[in-house]
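Example 438.
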Amino acid sequence: MQYPANTLEHYWMPFTANRDFKADPRLVVRAEGVHYWNHRGERILDGSSGLFCSAAGHGRPEIAEAVAKQLLEMDFAAPFQMGHPAAFEVARRVAALTPGDLNHVFFVNSGSEAVDTALKIALAYASARGEGRRQRFVSRERAYHGVNVGGTSLSGIMKNREAFGALMPGVVHMRHTWLPENRFTKGQPAKGAELAEDLQRIAELVGGNTIAACFIEPIAGSTGILVPPKGYLERLREICDAHGILLVFDEVICGFGRTGKAFAAQSFGVTPDMITMAKALTNAAQPMGAVAVRDDIYDTVVDAAPEQSVELFHGYTYSGHPAACAAALATLDIYERENLFERAAEMSPYFLDSIFALEDMPGVTDIRGYGMIAGVDIAPGPVPGMRGYEATKRLFRAGLHVKFTGDCALVAPPLIAGKSDIDEICSILREVLGGMEE
Ligand SMILES: Cc1ncc(COP(=O)(O)O)c(C=O)c1O
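Predicted structure in complex with pyridoxal-5'-phosphate:
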C-alpha cells in the first residue's frame, strides 16, 4: 500500500473510530488553562479536563520547568534495587493525602497498571498470610478498571470485553448501582444501598474466604458517573471486613480533588484497604499512576520474605520515573498552594446546579453528578452510542471538548474553571444537544 506523505494512516488510535476520525480529524495543537486550540487556531473549551486528568488546567509552567530541570539533572534511574530522592518524596506526599493508614505507595505508569498491580498485591498479601485460597475477585457491572488483562477482567462494560476471550478466571460481578427511580439525583441517591448485598451473596456462594479483593470505583466514572447510593460504600466495607476481603477503591478519576477532597474515600467517609490512582497525580503532564496500601498489607508482604530478598516480584522499568516524580511534586504543590481540592468543593454546587439545569431538555434522559463531575445521558438512537459519538463531533466543532461514553456526556472541567467557564460549557451543551433534537 502506498500512502501519501501526510497520511494519518500509520497511527492506530486508541479507543477511536479510526476511519471516521482520519476522514475528518479533530486535531489539537496547543493547550493553556481551560482551553485547547485546534490546528486551525480555533479555541476549544475543555469540559472533561482532557480525560479527567488535567485538574490544575493545561500548560502549567511550574510543572514543565520541574520536568525539564529533572531531565537535565538526571533523566532516568533504574527503579529496581536502586532509588532516587524524588520517588520517596512523592510517596511521602501521596501518603499524607490518603485516608487512614494507607501509607505505602507503589508507582506505575497508568491507571491500568495501577489496577493490575493492586490485583497482584492482593494475591501476594493473601499468599503471605497463608491464605492462598483467596484468588477470586469481585467487581461490578458497568465498571471500568483500565485495559490490561486484569483490569479488563474486572471491567463490566461489554464492549471492552467481548473481543478478548475468557480473560482472567475467578472474577464475579455485582450489579451496578444505576436505578431508574434515582434519575436526576444530584449527589448520592437515596435508594440502592441494598445493592451492596450482592457482595454478601457472592461471598455466601463461593466462600468469602476465597475472595482476595473487591474492586470498585467509588463513583463509577467511564460508564457515565454513577454516584454511590447513600450507605452503599459503608455496607461494602462491613461485608469486606466480615469476610477478610480487601476493599480497593479505584480512584483513577476520583482522586486528587475531583470530589472536593483529596480522595473520594474521604468525601464518602469510607476507608478502603488500597487506592489506585493516576491521571491528576501529575496533572497529566507525565504518565504516572500509583497504588497506596495500608500498613498491614505492606508489612505482611515485606515481612514474609527473607531480609535480603525481593519481597514483591513486580514493577515496571518506569516505576517512579524521575520526570514523572518531578511532575507529581510540582502538581501536588499547585494543588496545595491554590487550594484546588477546597475550590472544587466550593464550586461544586454551582457546577451541579448548572448541569442539572439541562434537565428540561427533551433529549436528556438522566443527569447524575457529585463534586466536579457529572454525567448527562442523551436518548440513544437505534444503535447505542451513535448519538453520543455524533454529539462529540458536533460539540468539538462548536468549541467544546466533552468525553462521551456511549450516549452519556462526562462533564468534568479542570478544577481551576470559573463560573463563566461552567456557564459556557452548559450553554454549548444546550445549543448542540438541543440542535440534535430538531
Ligand atoms: C477508574 C479507572 N481505572 C483505570 C483507568 C485506566 O487508566 P489509564 O487509561 O491511565 O490506563 C481509568 C481510565 O479512565 C479509570 O477511569
